[in-house]
Write a structure and sequence with these properties.
With 276 residues, the chain is an alpha+beta fold. It is 21% helix and 33% strand. The longest helix is centred in the middle third of the chain and has 17 residues. Pfam families: SnoaL_2.
Length: 276
Amino acid sequence: MFATLSACASAPPRHEGPSVTNGTQQKQQVVALLKAIETGEAAPVAVIHPDKYIQHNLGAADGLAGFGALLQALPKGSARVNTVRVFQDGDLVFAHTDYDFFGPKIGFDVFRFEDGKIVEHWDNLQEKPTQPNPSGHTMLDGPTEATDLDKTEANKQLVAGFVDDILVNGRMDKLAGYFDGDRYVQHNPAIADGLSGLGQALQAMAQAGVTMKYDRVHKVLGEGNFVLVLSEGVFGGKPTTFYDLFRVESGKIAEHWDVIEPVPARDQWKNANGKF
């Protein structure tokens, strides 16, 4: 059920977990909950509301019981979890994590809190490419701590404008205005740095007959200079969900990480909640 953009080779070193310097209890609870997938520790799971947990991972049944059943299906001792980034926007906490979860994967998870408990979860998972991209970046390296907390809303508006203009509507005449020249760090495993790298990748995709289209944006979440956008569309002719994390610097998009996952056929869904 998980997407892939490149072949796997030897794994890079694992990252240390986030320091949560802009810390909240909810962020710490999310990091602990995700780590419990690896450790099997029961206490962190208590943050999930036992009666109101809505699951949007289509490979898991709804509710707390569905979460438990998914963990039970993991081969014993196989899970590894290292959360590299964690941010918060209101009652939503979003994390960027290095997983071994039925195989090596990179994931974004979004959790919604209500009255101190997690009541809803969304995620996107992609098979982990273990070679760096053409510019030598992995899907996880780069800055991890949010800054410019007073600019959160402005940065969300900037990124939302970029996604609407460029990814949804293809207004390519506006592309250069969102970037500081060719200064753009890219973590997509198949694309090199800079607008030049993006252009080359899009040209190669077009020549190969591979189309990528964003149709709808569902959420724009931010903390300081980091903004995560949850979208759906089509990639290579298949319904696909796109999670894109952007780092903003001085009013321009400076860095990008993403996770792309195809939506499974409806008859494979284990819950009826949909991806969003």
